[in-house]
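Thread: "does anyone have the structure for this chain?"

Original post by V.I.:
We have the sequence but no experimental structure in hand. Need at least a predicted one for the grant figures.
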Amino acid sequence: MATEAGPTASEYIVHHLTHLNTTGAAQKNIVDFGVFNLDSLFYSVGLGLFTVFLLYRAAQKATSGVPGRFQAAVEILVEMVSNQAKGIIHREESRRFVAPLALTVFVWIFLMNAMDLLPVDLLPRIWEAIYGAAGGDPHHAYQRVVPTADLNVTLGLSIGVLLICLWYNVKIKGFGGWVHELFSAPFGKHPLLAPINFLMQIIEFAAKTISHGMRLFGNMYAGELVFMLIALMGGAWVAGSGISGPLLWIGHVLAGTIWAIFHILIITLQAFIFMMLTLVYIGQAHESH
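Reply from O.Q.:
Generated one for you, tokens below.
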């Protein structure tokens, strides 16, 4: 009886890099505002709600006595974010909103990044089984579980930060003052320089927003791809003959363990960098040229 051949290495990678979206067609890392990546929306919104729940529980359980381990960890995190906000944003009124925002951003992005530490095939295989049981073709059961490895998500986050920056520009400087700054900075108030100043301001806003989202996406996408390559090494040991099979399995375990430990630093660092840039950009909105 003939058995169905498994996917090739390239087919395996392509399948895992394809989103479950509203079109039902294969779509990878393409920014298309007319298509919704349902997997990214599900995991990002779900983890966002979980972030709010965690912080709510920490606030509910906070006591003035000896704190438990969870409360102590949250207090350390809150103090760290608060100190960073104080050093960048000097208006106390603004910090009342921005510091909790930065805390939420850090925890939310950390949790989305941490999805990369799950076994590569765990959730996709569960989804394939559910999809197949519902009468669909498991080979078309696409699912990506790391929201921050989707450029649409990271750019959405950075655009959200941009909107907050624009709000504070208007709130702090007044609409007229901000418009005046758009046409008078950075080169001066001469009327002939107004178009150049405006162009430079728009380029600055665009560069900040794009680089903010692209930095997070690039690091998480690369990390996701490395985990897939390591998973391929683990799958290849089955086809290995002689001593190559066990060696591939040992290499898979060692490489996966080392990369997972190193990746814990990456996911934390990327969440911290995104949070810090959020604070920096909002802080710049408070400054006048």
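V.I.: this helps a lot. The mean pLDDT is 87.
O.Q.: and The two ends are 77 Å apart (CA to CA).
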